[in-house]
Amino acid sequence: MIDQPQGIDRRRFLKTSVAALGTAAIGFPDIIPARALAAPGRPGANDRIVIGHIGIGGRGNGLLGYSLSRVESGKVAVAAVCDVDEARLRKALIRVGPNATAYRDYRYLLERKDIDAVVIGTPDHWHAVGVVHAAESRKHIYVEKPACCTIDEGKAMVRAGRENKVCIQVGSQGRSQAECYKANRYIANGNIGTVNKVICWHYESPVDSKPVPDSAPPPDLDWDLWLGPLPWRPYNAKYCPGTFRWIMESGGGQIRDRGAHVMSNALWIMNADRKMFASPKNPAPPVTIDAKGTLPMSGLWDTAVTMDVTYQFRNPDWTMVWSQPGEKIPYFDEEKRKKLGIRDTYGATYHGSSDKLVVWVGDGQVYTELKAVDWTPGPGAKDVHRSPDFDHTSDWLHAIRTGTEPVMNIEAGVAAAYLTVLGNLSLILGRKLTWDPVKQEIIGDEQARRMMSRPQRYPYVV
Amino acid sequence: MNQPPSPATHTTMSDTTSNAAVIAAAAAGLAAVSHAAGSTSVDDLIAKITTKDNAVRGPAWQGAAPYGAAAVKRLAGVMPDEDFETARSAKRALWVIVRHAGRPGAAKEATAVAKELVALLPTAPAATRREVLWMLSEIAGDDAIAAVAALLSDKDVRADAVATLMRLPGRKSTAAIKSAFASAPEDFKFALADALRKRGEKVAGYPSQKMVPTRSTTVTQPPAAAAN
After folding, report:
1. Tens of pLDDT along A329-358?
2. What is the C-alpha separation between B222 and B228, in angstroms, rounded?
C-alpha cells in the first residue's frame, strides 16, 4: 500500500504519484485501479473506476446493475461483490462475470488496493459502519439512503468523509432527476414566491399481520454479520430480506425509506441542507420536530403505520410536514401516469406566497407540473446543480473524477437522515423535540439526547 | 411529580382490525389507565397483556405509560412468556413506560422506574436482561452503574452492558468500564478498550479490531468462469 502523505489532498496525491506507478502498471491484472494509472491533469485508466459492491440483495442488486451497465463503456469495472448471504453471492458472481471475487466479510474487500470505490447497498443499520470503514480505507463511496440510523452515526460519517477526503454520494437520487432539477430551478427563480410550507405525503407503512416465532437462520445467511452493529437477538424470518425497513432499529418505516427521498428533495429545493447541519461559522436557529402517529398493535414490525411530523425551521421561517398517508394529489395526466408507471402515491407540495408547485414521487422517478417543466429561464436566471445525464451514479462518478461535490454529498445525506431520525424519535418518545443544528444536539431532553447514539456491538463500530 | 399526559394523544394503535374495534379497544385501554397505578390496575394491565386478542393487548401495551414503576416487575415477568406475541406486548409495554418516565421534568418517575429495572438484572433471563439494560441506558443515573457493570462479566449480556455504560453520561460509567477492563477475559478486552477510547481514555495495547476481516466465504467463481 502507498500511504497518502499527510496534508496533501488525496486527489492531488493520486495525480502526482503516477510517474512511479506508470511503468509498474505494465503486467497488472485485467482490472487496474484508476488511482494506479492516473496522470497529472487527466483522469486515469481510460476513466475506469474499479468498484466493489457491498450488499447485493434487493436495492443493492439494482445498484450493481447501474455499475454493470457502465462496464462495456470502460467507465467502470466491478472487481468484487460482498454479502452476508451466500446464495446472493453465488448469483452475483454469475451476473458479474469471471473477474469478480466474492466476499462475505466486507473488510476483505476494503483491504484490496485495486478497488477505488465501493457501493453500499446494505440494510440501513450497516450504512454508518460501512461508510466510515470504507472512508478510512480511502475508498470513494456510494451509500444507499437513509445515510444514518442515529445522530452520532451521521457525525461519524461526515467526519470520516472529510478527514479522508473521499467522495461520498448518498442514494437519494431524486436530486439527480430532470424534473426535480426543473422544479428546483423554477422555485429558485421565484416563480411561486417565497415558499413557507412543504407538505409531503406518502402511503402508510405495512403491518406484520402474520407474525412468526424466532427460528434458526437460513443456512446461507450469516445472521451475526447481518446484525453487525445491532444488539444481538435471535433470527426471525420477518427481519429480512427487505422487511428490515419496517423495524425501527434497522429501517425506520416509510419516513426513513421514502422520507429520505422526498424530504431530501425538499431540503435541496429549500436550500436548507445546512439548516440541519450547521456550524458556528454558518449558524442556523433551532428546528423543532413534533410527531404523532399510530403504531402496529402486534407483530415484529414496529414502525409507525400512520404518521404526521411537523418540522419548524426558522430564519427563514418555513414548515415541512411529513404526512403518512396524508392527502394524495393525483398526477395531472392519467394516461401518462399509467404509461410511465408514475407512482403518485407519494410526493410533496411546495406552497409559496404566490403559487404552489407539486413534485410527485421523489426517488428514481420525479415528476412535476408542466409550468415548471416548460419554464424557460431568461437572462440572469439562477441555475442549480444539474447531474450529468440526470443520473445519480453519473453524478457520483463525475464528482470522483473532478474532485467536485456530488449533489447528495454526505453532509446533505446526513441532514436528510437527521430529519427522519428525529421524526421517529419524537414519535416514540411522545413529545416535541428541539434540534440545535450548530451543537448537533437535541436540547432540553436528556433521554432524547442519549438516544442520539446507539452504541454499536463490537467490533462492528465506527 | 408531574401528572403524565395521556399517551394516546401522541401515538395510538393500528392493525388490520376494523377502525371501530380499534377505537373501542383504545377507549377501554384509556379507561383502565385512568385509575391510579395500584396493584389492581396493574393486575388489569397484565390480564389484558396476556390475552390472545390483539384488539385488547395492543391498546393495553400502548396505553401502559401511566402505570409506571409499579408495573415494571410484573411486565418483566411476562416477557419470557412462551406465546411470542404476549412476550412482545409485555416488552413493548415496558418500553412505553420507560419512554414516558424519561420525559423532561419527571426525574423522580424515571428514578423509580430505573430502580425497578435494576432489581431485575441479577436474576431475569438473559433476553430480559438485555432489554432491561437498553432501557436503563435511556433513563438511569449513577445509581444503576454498579449493577450494570456487574454484568460486564456475564458473557450473555456483556455487550449490552458495555453499550449501556457508554450511554450513561459522566465519569462513573467510564470508571466502571476501566475497572472491568483490568479483570476482563482477553477476548473482551478489545471491546472494553474501544469503549474507553471513545470516552477519551488512553489504553495501552488491544488495538481496534474493527477493520480486521474474520468471516470467509465459501463462494468462489464457478470453474468454467474462472478458467475464462
Report:
1. 999 999 999 999 999 999 999 999 999 999
2. 10
Q: Do B103 and A445 touch (CB under 8 A)?
A: yes
Instruction: Check pLDDT > 60 for residue A362.
Output: yes
B20 touches chain A (CB under 8 A): no
Torsion over CA of A240, A245, A248 and A254, rounded to 10 degrees? -160
Among residues 25-64 of chain B, which lie with CB inside 8 Å of chain A? Answer: 54-55, 57-59, 61-62
Inter-chain touch B217–A451, beta carbons under 8 Å: no
CATH of domain A10-174: 3.40.50.720
- Locate the chain A residue with the closest alpha carbon to B126: A233
Contact check, Cβ <8 Å, A459/B11: no
The pLDDT tens digits for A103-138 are: 999 999 999 999 999 999 999 999 999 999 999 999
Across the interface, of B12, B163, B218, the residue whose CB is closest to A455 is: B163
Chain B residues in contact with A111 by the CB 8 A cut-off are 213
Cβ–Cβ contact B13 with A under 8 A: yes
- Number of A:B CB contacts under 8 A? 177
Indicate if the pLDDT at residue A149 is higher than 50: yes
Say which CATH architecture domain A178-379+410-450 belongs to.
Answer: 2-Layer Sandwich (3.30)
Of B15, B194, B214, the CB nearest to A296: B15
Instruction: Mutate one of B79, B215, B216, B228 to test the A interface: name it (highest A CB count within 10 A).
Output: B215
Encode chain B (228 residues) as per-residue pLDDT tens digits.
333 334 434 554 444 333 333 333 333 344 444 444 566 799 999 999 999 999 999 999 999 999 999 999 999 999 999 999 999 999 999 999 999 999 999 999 999 999 999 999 999 999 999 999 999 999 999 999 999 999 999 999 999 999 999 999 999 999 999 999 999 999 999 999 999 999 999 999 999 999 999 999 999 988 765 555
pTM of the model: 0.90
Interface probe, candidates A101, A110, A458, chain B, greatest B C-beta count within 10 A: A458
B55, B215, B221 member nearest A222 (Cβ): B215
Please name the residues in contact with B213: beta carbons below 8 A apart, sequence gap of 6 or more. Answer: A105, A106, A107, A108, A111
| Every domain of chain A and the residues it spans | 10-174, 178-379+410-450
